[in-house]
Amino acid sequence: MNWTEEFSSWLETGDENAEAVLDWPWDVEVQQLGNRELIVATHPKVPYPLYVSLDRLYATVQIDLNYPTDGMEPKLRWKLYKAMLTSSLDYNMIKIGLKDDDCKLIILSDMDLSCVGKTEFHNTVQNMVFVTQKLITYLDLSEETRDNIINNGARMIQQKLNEGMSEEDLLDLIRNRVGVDDAETFLREIVAALGSNDKSTVEGGE
């Protein structure tokens, strides 16, 4: 079985109106890292990418909050570490760890490919999302998270602009996929940031 294709299919197939995060259609990019393949999955409504690293026996699923903890006040840092350890016990198969010299937060799970299926993958990622939301609340990262979601949506719309998508389709994409009700203002701000050349691209695609 080609596990890269299998995981990619699970991520790419979905419905924007679904309740569960993993039931949305994600954008998937596959990268080669040595002898391992890395799936990078993103969705404009999700603030952080989902990484799936594959080797012969295991899939490691990871969310990287990119939040360094080494500069935190010691008492707050130890309270955070305690919350991390507690959360690791609350959810099956979930590990919360630190990486790099600045001790950035990561949430991950190692999945045995001999017994993994779509349901197990979805349940694992759903638990990872719960833990991520818990840490976002604990660290009071709501504003940063909101900014990440807006930036994700803006990058996707910029790409569609460059591909020549019509204004009508762009507005539909902003409302239904990015989740922004005032699509006209959102698009106008992106076009203004890109400059007059991109504006003519939008108007020409009508």
TL;DR?
The protein has 206 residues and is of the alpha+beta class. The protein has 7 helices and 6 strands.
Describe this structure in words.
The model is unreliable at 196-206 (pLDDT under 50). The longest helix is centred in the middle third of the chain and has 21 residues, at 118-138. The protein has 7 helices and 6 strands; from the N terminus they run αββββαββααααα. The chain has helices at 3-12, 74-90, 118-138, 142-162, 167-178, 183-194, 196-204; strands at 27-33, 36-42, 50-54, 58-68, 95-99, 104-112. It has a 6-stranded antiparallel sheet. The protein is globular. The N and C termini lie far apart (44 Å). The protein folds into 2 domains: 3-140, Yope Regulator, Chain: A (2-Layer Sandwich); 144-204. A hairpin with a 3-residue loop joins strand 3 (50-54) and strand 4. The chain is of the alpha+beta class and 206 residues long. It is 50% helix and 21% strand.
Can you give keywords for this protein?
206 residues, alpha+beta, 2 domains, 6-stranded antiparallel beta sheet, 50% helix, globular
